[in-house]
Amino acid sequence: MANHSLWARLRPFRRPLLFNKVALRIQSHPRIHSVNSRWTRYKSFRQHRFLGDFTWYSWIFLTWVPVVVFFNANVMELAFINGPSMYPFMNAEKDQTTAPDVTVAWKWNAQHNLARGMIVLFWNPRKPEITVVKRVVGLEGDIITTRPPYPALVIRVPPGHIWVEGDGGERDSIDSNVYGPIATALVIGTIPFVLKPLHRAGWVRWWEHPVNGRVRHRS
Amino acid sequence: MGFTSRYYGHPFRVLFSIGKSVAFAHLIWNYGVAWGSGSGASMMPTFPVLGKSVIIDRRCRRGRNVQVGDCVVYNIPIEPGEEGIKRVLGMPGDYVLMNSPDCKNRNHMIQVPEGHCYIMGDNLPWSRDSRDFGPLPLALIKGKVVATSYLNGWNPLKWWSKFDNGLKPVDTTSE
């Protein structure tokens, strides 16, 4: 090996003029062993017992980070449910344990094909860094009979918006009855699957959810 | 050479590398800096109808570090999937006049609710903004305009210009 010291291995390589011819001459030189290109010197650096492997596997790890970020942001992510707003469907054991339910949030094309009864994950319109899980009650154009905190008795959901409510009712849930209909663009995912606790694990059969009698008119 | 032989004859290495490169570009585009070309007359004195494109700072997504007077890129709440550029008139807690100065109800005033902002286009008669759909949730803001590019001439260095917050203090001396 030509480079004996670590300093020599880290030295920036400057390709001299007439590199190929000089390299050919040097290869036939009796005392100089070889002249390495940048890639070959990197390969020899990789054969270092610790540094070579460490830099290589760190690099491989770093290149996978954007892939994981893309997957979590656009395809699928785990959602941990805190609070009683979806009781009794989620956090049914809220009075026995503090452990949150673990669910799967599906994010690919989540804003399309929304339906009444689906459970959606969206940005809290009042706290822009916090996500919330609620059930879709009304789609755009529906006429909804509201619950008490809302100032009007009846509302038509405006275009591009949906009406979301928690299963917990007006005592436990801060939902559209507090902050009004939310823009569909705030939705970042649907909840198709529950992972934990295991005895309730399975697909969310949202189409079997009883039709909310407070939807007066469906668009 | 080593670099080509690492990929030549290794289709999965090629596919994985392309996928990782796309994901890296996505990371930069959505969480770092993005480029976009707008069209429309709603920001007329600031942006012409066509031709001027914007550099967007994605670190200001969801209203982070956004101040009154900034131009923001946002998801139009009444048209899912569409994006627009408007100027921020009020941040949470501010009192704003709801309507245009030439409107009948021009003195109507609201307090911008928690987590929302009030946006308007610079071209008031030709802008669809918070006057129509109300205060905008900060979570719908996708970024802030930090620079503009206008492709005139052949020198790429002259295409870019910094975009500042145009807010000025009110001149109270002259009356």
From TrEMBL, chain A:
Catalytic site: 85, 134
Bilayer-crossing regions: 56-81
GO (cellular component) term, any one: mitochondrial inner membrane peptidase complex
Domain Peptidase S26: start-end pairs: 60-146
Keyword Protein transport attributed: no
Keyword entries, A-Z: Hydrolase, Membrane, Mitochondrion, Mitochondrion inner membrane, Protease, Transmembrane, Transmembrane helix
One annotated GO biological process: signal peptide processing
GO molecular function, one term: serine-type endopeptidase activity
Compartments reported by the entry: Mitochondrion inner membrane
Topology within the bilayer: Single-pass membrane protein
PANTHER family: MITOCHONDRIAL INNER MEMBRANE PROTEASE SUBUNIT 2 (PTHR46041)
Family: Belongs to the peptidase S26 family. IMP2 subfamily.
Protein name: Mitochondrial inner membrane protease subunit 2
UniProt source species: Pseudomassariella vexata
TrEMBL record, chain B:
Parts of the chain that traverse the membrane: none
Protein name according to UniProt: Peptidase S24/S26A/S26B/S26C
GO molecular function, a single term: serine-type endopeptidase activity
InterPro entries: LexA/Signal_pep-like_sf (IPR036286), Mito_IMP1_subunit (IPR052064), Pept_S26A_signal_pept_1 (IPR000223), Pept_S26A_signal_pept_1_Lys-AS (IPR019757), Peptidase_S26 (IPR019533)
CDD domains: S26_SPase_I
The keyword Membrane is annotated on this UniProt entry: yes
Gene3D superfamilies reported for this sequence: Umud Fragment, subunit A
Annotated compartments: Mitochondrion inner membrane
Pfam families recorded: Peptidase_S26
Active site: 42, 86
Domain Peptidase S26 positions: 16-99, 107-148
Cellular component annotations (GO), alphabetically ordered: mitochondrial inner membrane peptidase complex
Family designation: Belongs to the peptidase S26 family. IMP1 subfamily.
A Gene Ontology biological process term: protein processing involved in protein targeting to mitochondrion
